[in-house]
Each structure stands twice: as structure tokens, then as C-alpha cells.
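To whoever picks this up:

The parser on our side crashed when reading a file containing two proteins. I've narrowed it down to the boundary between the first structure block and the second sequence. Both blocks are reproduced below exactly, byte for byte. First block:
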Amino acid sequence: MNGRDEPRLHLEPFLHLVDVTHDRALIAWGGFWFEPTGDRTRWRIVDDERLPEVAGGRRGCIGAEAEPYGAAQVEVLDMAGAVVARATTAQRCWAWVEGLEPDTEYRYRVLIDGEEWGAGERWDWTPDDAGGYSLKPAGRSYDLRLRTAPDPEARVGLTFAAIGDYGVGICADSESSRRQRRVAEALEHLVTACGVRLVLSLGDNVYLGEEGRIGNESGGEDDDWYSSFYQPYRYVISRVPVFPAVGNHDTTDSEGSDDRAQMEDNFHTAQRFRDDDARASVSPGLFYRFRYGADVEFVCIDTSLATPDEHVHRFFEDAKHLRWLEETFARQAPRWRIPFSHHPAYCAGPEHGNDPEILQVLDPLFAAGGVRLVLSGHEHNFQLTRAHGRTYVVSGAGGKLREQLPHDFDAAHTEAWAMQAHVLLVELDADTARLTPVSGLRADGSPHLMTALTPSNDVLRPPFIVTP
């Protein structure tokens, strides 16, 4: 950043493949503004409050409610380069593209006023020559491919990933930042090399003022999410959809501000779930289900504390949401029905224990609904419990890590645990789920598979197998 013609601002464009079904895709775009620091040696992100003065009166950067950047045309192309579907908008920064074929690979692009959005070399938050990290050209560009889900009647397997409690941010030179970076790199490898088709977020998508953040924000503005979500998973979220669960740090449960509205904006929950009462129960709360082919159904459960005017302690105890959950789990079960949420039913600690409300209200529904695998976060480690014919996994160390020993293995029926940051790889076929926690990448770029311990300190090597 030297010379007379130093830029005053840099707009870094982002692309987000928000959702993909068997016949359509929800594609979004946006960007973040950066300005030089006082000594003009590095860049810093422009806070949302200053956007009106530096970005022509804008109020937001990215997400469902962001103002348009111009007349947009979203094109989906077959692998030979022919445009097969198109959507246009001048009012939004997102669009559903309809009329796609099931289980088919495509490329896509977004044109804003005729110019391709996010083309060419991208600027990422990367290590700099002076130590630490800064924004600079990274020698990378987008690979904008998507693959539609299979036909709803197709009986096929699925490889997906789950990651929880990741929202510490990657912009500071801190251990929590490095953890999230390592896990994010592993997740990207699983998407590009191992066939991951979707990602489940197990909650705590952004934390308040944690090390590794830009500034001391809570998660209630677009710029708060650059460090925690958009930059670390940049090349993941442009390729596969992320399905979110609500964590206690995404609400007022553990923070002074409620980030739920910002989370719903960034994940486009209204565009994906709100208009389908059969598929979701929302506002307030976030409960939804989605299928992948004929054999797999995911059920997102909001386990956060209800607001005081709801007259219940947890959102899943609300009459409307509970009725939807009862109807969901009473439906004929596919081969795999997988509930996921932030708070775990069983937990050996060290900070959290078993959740009596989940065990009393939700676990009987799991039993009735043929559930064999339950995923959650919240405790910042890895735990695997087997109880009542079901396997319960805690995967809450995508960035956060609790470095104390669990203390209540017996009550939690714990079979395996580990004190390492990780992403959970799940490979499903008709009868078996293979669970492999991955803690990072080896020097040769291959995944570093995370071992675990039994309560008696015997070493267990992945994968962990779930069968009927």
C-alpha cells in the first residue's frame, strides 16, 4: 500500500450458494468494504455504521435484506458452458434459479450491470510478511460449481459435514483464530475432495467480542460476520449450502444483544423456510426439516431460551413448535432421520451436563420417530454417547475449545470423547453411518483424522459406526 495512488477503499465481493434442492438453487451475493489503517500498512473492515458515508448510503453489505448492487442476472450453466437456467432481479442480492435437473453438476455466475461478480483473483485475510494477518490478494479465485440434490424418490447415500461453536473469528493472531482456520481448511478439503454435499451448523455461529474478531462487536451487523463466517468458509459456502441451528451465543441467552435477526438474514431463513408451514415452524424460533433423496431427513430444533413473552422456558416447549415437532416425528421415518440442534441431550461436561428438558420433551419424540443419530454442539469438545438404541454426538469445537476434562461419563453414557477442535464428517449409506472427526490437514494436504478416548483412556480410532 505505497505510492501516490493508494486506494481509499476496497470492496471485496462474495458469493453464497445458500440452498440447493433437486430442481432449484438459491444464490446470493454481496461484499465487504475495507479501508487502510492509519499507518496505511494494512486494511481494516468498514463498520456497518459507517457504510452510509463510505458506500453511497448503503445500510448493509450482504444477506437477504441487503440493498441491490445493480441489475443482477444469475446464470446456471451446464458443464459444457451452455446457460440452462437464468433469474434476474434489480431489487435484491439473491435469487432462486428454477428448472434444474436432479443430482446434476452445474456451474453458475452472477452478473451485476453486465459485469461478473467476484471474478478474478480474490483478496483474503491471510498471513502477511510482518507477522499476523491482513487483507491482500491471495492467489485464489472462485470455483463456482453446484450439484443439485437427488430426486426425492432416489435411494442414495449422502456425505455431509457438521460443525459447531465455530464463531470466534479468524482475523486476529490468536490460538482460537488459528483453530478456526485449521478446521475451516479441513472443511474445504472435505467439500472439494471428499464429496461433502451440505454442512450442518450446530449453533454459536458468532461470539461477542471474542479474540479473533475485528473489533468488539456482538454479531448484530454484517461486518461482524466477515471474520466468523464469510471469510473462513468463503470457498465452502460458494459450493455447498449450510443449514443453521441457533446457539445460545446467537441470541440473548449468553449475550446482551440478540443476534437472531442477523443470523436469519445471513442464512436467508425466511426465503428458505418461512413460506412452507409443513416444512418449518418459525417466527419466533427456528424449526425446519429437509430431505435428501428418499432415505435421509434432517430436523433442525431450536433449543435456545424462549423470549419472556413466550410463557415457556425453551422454544421447543411452545405449543405451536411442539405440535410441529410431534407431527414431524410421527411421519413415516426414512432410513435416516437426523435431528440436529445446539444443546445436547447427553453431555459429560466439563461445563455442561445432561439436559433434562430435552430428555423429557424431545427424546421420546426421537424414540417414536425412528431416530438413530442425533447431532449437537454447545460443549466445546467431542463426545459420543450411545443410549436407548441411539447415538448422540456432541461436536462443539469448530473454533472454541474447552481444555478441561469431562467429569460425568456415567450419567452421559459416554463411549468416546476428545479435547480437540474438529469438523465432523458423516458418511451415510442405507444401513450405516460412518462418523469421522477431522482436526485439520496433514503436511501433504490429506485430512488428519482425530482419535478419541474411552472414559478409561483407551484410544479409539475413527470412524465411529452407527448401525440399526
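<<boundary where parser fails>>
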Amino acid sequence: MKAIIATLVSIIIFAGCAQPQDSKAKIFAGVNQKPSSKEAVATFAEGCFWHTEIVFQSLIGVRDAVSGYAGGTDTNPDYEKVSSGETGHAESVQVYYDPSKISFETLVKAFFASHDPTELNRQGNDVGTQYRSIAFYRNDKEKQVIDSEIKRVVDEKKYSGKIVTEVNPFSNFYEAEGYHQEYILHHPQNPYVQNVSIPDFERFRKEFKGNFKS
């Protein structure tokens, strides 16, 4: 993300992810409320968390996807520290969902369908360990689901490269700064979003066989 932002600095003061005026993609906001007893939680990292947020919030059964940091050791991370690559954290999203409407298996399928799991420590021009691919699990069953999906993707031979997604036990999630939340929705003219995030999201909606909000 920073590499692209640097090239746009003469155009905008702050760069990030945005929606083009002629885009057909509808961006859904999450519902910020206290999790209910019926909800489950899943955590994923797949590059820029602005993009990951709208991917999961587009799916029926997902109430909210919160941008944050996970996978590292720093107990007080912020965007600048994580961007340095020294915290061990990756840009991640915490997904709050209703298991009666969408399964963990479907979320995992959406995760692998919405980014390139063969890119090591990067997604596109966003380079660094903070952009690495991680699927977190909270129990053995979830780990089995993730491993099974990796096997399916490998067997399909969609990619010529090796899957480098980390499959890690979940430990802690640290919510990102407020300005990162719903960033794409609130910054529709940002060049990064227009040229990177929204095209990727539209490709995901076209290719993924899931139940999307309308």
C-alpha cells in the first residue's frame, strides 16, 4: 500500500483505498454493535485491510468486519509501527458472523478467492510482512477447514506457485485506528481504491459463488 501511495503523493494528501464513480460495486458498511451470543468470530489477513473489510461485509450473514492487527507480538500496535514490519503483525480483519447464515467454511473459501495466496509477504504492490496471507483458527475443526481448502486450491491448480498462506492459531486482535474503519466507503475518490481495491473487489464478486448482500 505504501509503495503505491508514494507515487500518488503529488495528487492527494492522504492515500488509501476508494470507489470509482462508474463502479458497479456496492459497498456495504458493517453494523457496529456488541456481538450477540449467537455470533461467531473469524480472523483473516490478506493484504490491505481496507479491501479485506469490504470483501467480508459483502456476504450475507456477516454483520461486521473490523480492521486491525494480528499475528505479531507487540501488545500496543498502531499503523506506523505495523507498517515498519517490526511488530510481527499483519493487517487483518475480525469478522463477526451468524453461523446459521454463513459457515466458517464459506468464509475461508471467500478468503482464498479474494487474494493471491501464493504471494509471499505482499499483495500486488503492497510489500512487507504486514501484508502477508494468514488464516487464523480458534479450534482444531477450523484448522481442518482451512487445510482442506488449501488442498482444494492446490488440487485445482489455479496457481502455478506454492500456497504461502500461514495457518496460525488465533491469539490476539488489536483494532486499528478509527480512520481505517470503513475507509473505502468514506473515501470514494481515493486513487488507490479506484485503481486497486475496487477492481479487485469486483473481480471477487464476479468469480466467487457466494451469497452476496443486495
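After patching the parser it read the second block fine. The first helix runs from residue 2 to 7. The chain is about 30% helix and 20% strand.
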